[in-house]
């Protein structure tokens, strides 16, 4: 990204020094809100040598308008983050989107897979956002761990809508019939552009666009959350595409109670997949029957874990008196101590016993010497 922390880009966004996936966090100087900005190279810089004429200075503006038009009418939803704007500046297309406080799902899963019911909660939030988009006649096309934000209250918010639209518009521009020969040549150019821009990320390579492609991507993401890997090889793009085309994902053995849903979402026939509304309903039913994380078995499991104390504590509560000393109070129901002084704590710290004994002996010797001298006199 050709910008430094503190720089203002697109005349509006002051960049910070914290990267977020492939973007940077920034402050929107007009609203005071935090946003996530991405810088995308305009087509003539993505694949050097593709264009033989001088770049059109109005090209970036046209792409920005196409991007804005492609997501026009996106509905508001509590789990959907919307774009702020796409604006061309010199050789870059800047895309700014809402970015509330929280962690990206990619950051959240760096330490390993998620428990099944936590993954189900996140997927239910995403399915709700997708269902709203699909009802409005739009598709998302960018459902990945990098575009999901998990807030402090655990809610998952789906972003990346404007960014995905910008990437697809740029790829389409690169694949345009430069010499008037559309068809296979155009498809090959689009594939080359998407390969350079997106890389072998399984969620972005559905065989079809639209709602069915979004649900397939949600299945890939859910598999990744539950197992820590994609259901298709991501070593390189040709291997990934070959595996996706054959419709043979890796077995969903590690998906637990979500295995049937994941397998249906990854079916090669889009008509056989569950839609976003159905996914949300099934996840709600699954979560309604989830085991209580604070039930008797959970408490027993926590009690079996060693507490790590260095020593065993005496029985009974510790009572601190006004004088500052602490004693252990007798626990009700325990046997009464027998004998005078039993159960009392020494008021002399053990570390001082030695010096006190030595001092007492010296005092006795001095007193004896004084007595002998007085008698002799």
Structure description:
The protein has 377 residues and is an alpha+beta fold. It has a single domain, classed as Transferase(Phosphotransferase) domain 1 (Transferase(Phosphotransferase), domain 1). Helix content is 40%, strand content 14%. The protein is built from twelve helices and eleven strands. The strands form three sheets. The protein has a six-stranded antiparallel β-sheet with strand order 1-2-3-4-6-5. Strands 7-8-9 form a three-stranded antiparallel β-sheet. A hairpin with a 2-residue loop joins strand 5 and strand 6. Helix 4 runs antiparallel to helix 10. It starts with 7 loop residues before the first strand and ends with a helix. About 12% of the residues have low confidence.
Any chance you could write out the topology, listing elements then pairs?
Layout: E1 8-9, E2 13-20, E3 23-28, E4 34-41, H1 43-46, H2 59-70, E5 83-89, E6 92-98, E7 103-104, H3 105-108, H4 116-135, E8 148-150, E9 156-158, H5 161-174, H6 184-198, H7 211-227, H8 237-246, H9 259-265, H10 276-288, H11 296-304, E10 318-320, E11 326-328, H12 350-376
Antiparallel strand pairs: 1-2, 2-3, 3-4, 4-6, 5-6, 7-8, 8-9, 10-11
């Amino acid at each position: 990204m050709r910008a430094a922390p503190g720089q203002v880009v697109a005349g509006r966004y002051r960049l910070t020094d914290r990267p977020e996936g492939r973007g940077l966090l920034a402050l929107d100087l007009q609203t005071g809100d935090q946003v996530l900005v991405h810088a995308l190279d305009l087509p003539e810089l993505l694949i050097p040598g593709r264009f033989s004429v001088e770049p059109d200075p109005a090209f970036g503006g046209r792409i920005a308008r196409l991007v804005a038009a492609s997501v026009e009418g996106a509905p508001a939803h509590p789990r959907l983050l919307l774009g702020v704007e796409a604006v061309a500046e010199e050789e870059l297309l800047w895309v700014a989107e809402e970015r509330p406080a929280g962690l990206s799902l990619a950051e959240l899963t760096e330490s390993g897979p998620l428990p099944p019911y936590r993954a189900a909660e996140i997927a239910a939030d995403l399915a709700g956002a997708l269902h709203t988009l699909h009802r409005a006649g739009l598709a998302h096309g960018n459902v990945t761990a990098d575009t999901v934000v998990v807030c402090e209250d655990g809610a998952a918010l789906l972003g990346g809508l404007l960014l995905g639209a910008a990437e697809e518009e740029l790829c389409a521009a690169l694949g345009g019939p430069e010499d008037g020969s559309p068809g296979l040549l155009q498809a090959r150019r689009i594939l080359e552009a998407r390969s350079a821009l997106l890389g072998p990320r399984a969620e972005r390579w559905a065989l079809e666009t639209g709602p069915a492609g979004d649900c397939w991507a949600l299945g890939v993401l859910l598999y990744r959350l539950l197992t820590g890997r994609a259901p298709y090889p991501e070593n390189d793009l040709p291997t990934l595409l070959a595996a996706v085309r054959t419709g043979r994902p890796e077995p969903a053995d590690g998906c637990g109670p979500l295995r049937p849903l994941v397998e249906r979402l990854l079916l090669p026939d889009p008509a056989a997949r569950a839609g976003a509304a159905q996914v949300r309903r099934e996840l709600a039913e699954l979560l309604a029957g989830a085991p209580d994380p604070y039930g008797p078995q959970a408490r027993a499991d926590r009690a079996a874990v060693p507490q790590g104390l260095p020593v065993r504590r005496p029985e009974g509560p510790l009572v601190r008196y006004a004088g500052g000393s602490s004693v252990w109070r007798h626990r009700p129901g325990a046997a009464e101590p027998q004998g005078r002084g039993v159960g009392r704590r020494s008021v002399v710290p053990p570390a001082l016993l030695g010096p006190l004994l030595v001092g007492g002996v010296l005092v006795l010797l001095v007193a004896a010497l004084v007595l002998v001298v007085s008698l002799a006199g």
